[in-house]
Amino acid sequence: MTVTDITVIGGGPAGLYAAFYSGVRQMSVRLIEAQEELGGKVRLYPEKMIWDVGGVPPARGSEFRKNLIQQGLTFDPEVHTGTTVTDIKRQENGQFEIITHDGRSFASKTVIIAAGSGIINPQRLTIDGAERFEISNLHYTVQSLETFRGKNVLISGGGNAAIDWANELDDIAGRVILSCRSEVMKGHESEVNKVMCSNVDCQFRTSIHRLIASEDGSRIAQVELLCGEDEYRTVDVDHVIVNHGYERELTFLNDSTIALEQTGHQRIAADADGRTSIDGLYAAGDVVDYSGKLNLLAGAFQDAANAVNAAKQFVDPEAGAKGMVSSHNEVFKKRNEEMKKQEAASK
Ligand SMILES: Cc1cc2nc3c(=O)[nH]c(=O)nc-3n(C[C@H](O)[C@H](O)[C@H](O)COP(=O)(O)OP(=O)(O)OC[C@H]3O[C@@H](n4cnc5c(N)ncnc54)[C@H](O)[C@@H]3O)c2cc1C
């Protein structure tokens, strides 16, 4: 069994940056991610524009995620996707043993937990057979706004995501119906006001009752809405977007053999360098809690670098507390020369 210097649990922004920064600090690293794809929560907002990361031009979530992954894989970490961590143990020799859902076990000198808000999946419709439309016109995330151009779109939900998509699609779709179960929407005030003044047809006290398939059964052709207590209305649709929130699963924090100190609900207590109540085990990103913690991408990157630096000193107490800036770091020397050659060749 290969023993890595660091095992990072979670391949979101914090985990990917930790994998990159482990390479900067010349440590071997393994990255374990429960979902089939890397990128963490950024997977959930591929079409949203991200403006608030220093020095990075505004970018769609999909573009941002692509760059994050590219950077995270710079030093060829050992990556296991579709792999859920279920337990962390400490062996007698002081190393950690990380157990995954499929019974595998990985050894590591240190661990960085970057599990964010857990394994997140959209709350799906509880209507029998609804899943068969997920390959055609039932959506839980918006991958591309263009899909909806000129189409009849029904959005189900009354929170921020549903309201945001209704506002975004107002000028793009042919018709947007927003079906909201309660009498009020629970979004940001300005966005609620915007949707109420738009062309979006807001139908309060309604919910999806039945999906009516097209003749060949491949698509949803109509949606039957339950209105109030016992009235039904049928609407023609080209697409249905469901934003009913997310399910999250972060049970290994409580179930692990190692008892980690937590604050509140499934947040790991740590200092600003990511040091937890267990020596050699660090936390970074949205999963960590300390005074001044910033639950943003920028905060995740700082946490990751700090956690890697702390792990470096755990593995090698003689090592410097901080890494060299990249412009002075030997690990980039060869790559910088390659890039300079490419630039010169393209002139
Ligand atoms: C809709 C939305 C819009 C946002 N917009 C912005 C924005 O514009 N700007 C900004 O700065 N921030 C934004 N954020 C916040 C930002 O996405 C988060 O701060 C960031 O993703 C946190 O990164 P993370 O790596 O800590 O956690 P996550 O992104 O949650 O990643 C954690 C990863 O760990 C994995 N994981 C969890 N448990 C396990 C396990 N047991 N085994 C293996 N893997 C596991 C998960 O599957 C996930 O991939 C937004 C968030 C949302 C939801």
From TrEMBL:
Its EC number is 1.18.1.2. Coiled coil: none annotated. SUPFAM superfamilies: FAD/NAD(P)-binding domain. The keyword Transmembrane helix does not apply. FAD binds at E33, K41, Y45, V85, I120, D286, S327. It holds the Pfam family Pyr_redox_2. Its cofactor is FAD. Residues 5-307 form the FAD/NAD(P)-binding domain. It comes from the Bacteria. Keywords: FAD, Flavoprotein, NADP, Oxidoreductase. Residues 325-347 are annotated as: Disordered. Residues 330-347 have a biased composition (Basic and acidic residues). Homodimer. HAMAP family: FENR2. Belongs to the ferredoxin--NADP reductase type 2 family. This is Ferredoxin--NADP reductase. The lineage of its organism: Bacteria, Bacillati, Bacillota, Bacilli, Bacillales.
